[in-house]
Each structure stands twice: as structure tokens, then as C-alpha cells.
Amino acid sequence: MKQFGTRKLCYAGILCAVAVVGSFFYIPVFGSKCVPVQHMVNILCAVLLGPFYGVGVAFCASLIRNLLGIGSLMAFPGSMFGALLCGLAFWKTKSIPLTLIAEVFGTAVLGGLCAYPVAILFMGIQAGQIAFYAYVIPFLISTAGGAILSGILLGALRKTGILKTAAVR
Q1: CA–CA distance from 59 to each of 14, 79, 128, 169 (Å)?
Q2: Cα 148 from Cα 37, distance rounded (Å)
Q3: How far is Cα 42 from Cα 102, in angstroms, rounded to an integer?
Q4: For 90-104, b where at least 16 C-beta lie within 10 A, e where not — what string?
Q5: Could you read off the pLDDT of 79-123 as tens digits, one per residue?
Q6: Nearest to 38 by CA among 136, 142, 141
Q7: For the purposes of burial, counting CB atoms within 10 Å of the CB of 164, is it exposed (0-12), middle (13-18) or buried (19 or more)?
Q8: Is the pLDDT of residue 11 over 80?
Q9: H or E stretch covering 27
Q10: Which of the two residues, 36 and 129, has the higher pLDDT score?
Q11: What angle do CA 25, 27, 75 make, to 5 degrees?
Q12: Can you tell me the distance from the alpha carbon of 64 to that of 167, in angstroms, rounded to the nearest whole number?
């Protein structure tokens, strides 16, 4: 039992590092940094580690990115909602396509809508300066790219049989 906990923690640390380093590859859209690698990591965490590790990795990666000055506060709602939703989707269904859709919905819709109050409360942006749905489209672009990347990666891992041995449950 302790071996599985250590392995999960190591996977989580590696995936967190991949998310932080991958944040140097971003697409600027409407004042937010769209980071597809973070969403790829969310889906990999959902499949390999489960929903709660996924949320933890998303939080840690967002925090490290913000502390290093390479992220924005929008990283928190953008990544954590998607990580939770896709983690729960895979945990309940074991369906990779449904997991990809849950990541896109959780990040684009839920994360995008929750980014609006975060922007107003913590970033000082006035409500009249941005639209309520201003973050849904940028988050959709980011998470769709990450879902495509992770779908390709998970398909390759499944074909080689690595996915069965790598998953820590």
C-alpha cells in the first residue's frame, strides 16, 4: 500500500513539473495565457492518478507558475475545475473520450465562468470592462488543444500497453 502512495506522489510531482515547464508554451488570448500543456496534464492525472491528485497537481502547478511570475490568477479556476471534472468522469466511466469532453467542459465553461469573479475580486478589473463570458472562449481554445494532445498521447500509450501498467489505482 505504501509503495502505491509513493508511486502516485512521484507521478504527481513529475506531472506538476511538466505542467510548469509546459507553461512556457502558451497562446495569449484576451489577456489570459492559454496553456494547453496544463490541460494535457489534467487528463493524464485523471487517467493515471485519479481526480483528487489531478486537482492537487493543477493547484500546485498554478501556484508555482504564479510564484515564478509565468502565470496569472486565471490559472486556478481554469485548471482546477477541468481537473476535477475529468478526473471524476474517468473514475466513474473509464471512458477516455468522455474524460476529454469533461476536461473541455470543466475548464471552458465552469472555469471560464468562475474566472470572471476572480478577475473582479483579485485583479481589480471593473465589471464593465470585461464581459461575463470573456474567459470561456480563451479557456476553450486552451483546453481543446490540451485535450487533442492528451488524446493522441493516451491513444499511443494504450496501443503499446503502457497505459495498463502505468495507471496507479
Answers
A1: 14, 8, 29, 21
A2: 10
A3: 11
A4: bbeeeebeebbebbb
A5: 899 999 999 999 999 999 999 999 999 998 898 888 777 777 776
A6: 142
A7: exposed
A8: yes
A9: strand 27-29
A10: 36
A11: 80
A12: 25
Q: Which three cell numbers stand for residue 149?
A: 494532445
Residue with cell 490540451: 146
Using a 10 angstrom Cβ sphere, with 0-12 exposed, 13-18 middle and 19 or more buried, the burial of residue 112 is buried
The contacts of residue 111 (CB under 8 Å, 6+ apart) are 77, 78, 79, 80, 81, 82, 135, 139
Task: Output the DSSP codes for 94-126.
Answer: --HHHHHHHHHHIIIIIIHHHHHHHHHHHH---
Residue 62 one-letter amino acid: S
Model pTM?
A: 0.86
Quote the CA–CA distance of 166 and 136 in Å, as a whole number.
33
Q: Which residue has the higher pLDDT, 67 or 116?
A: 67
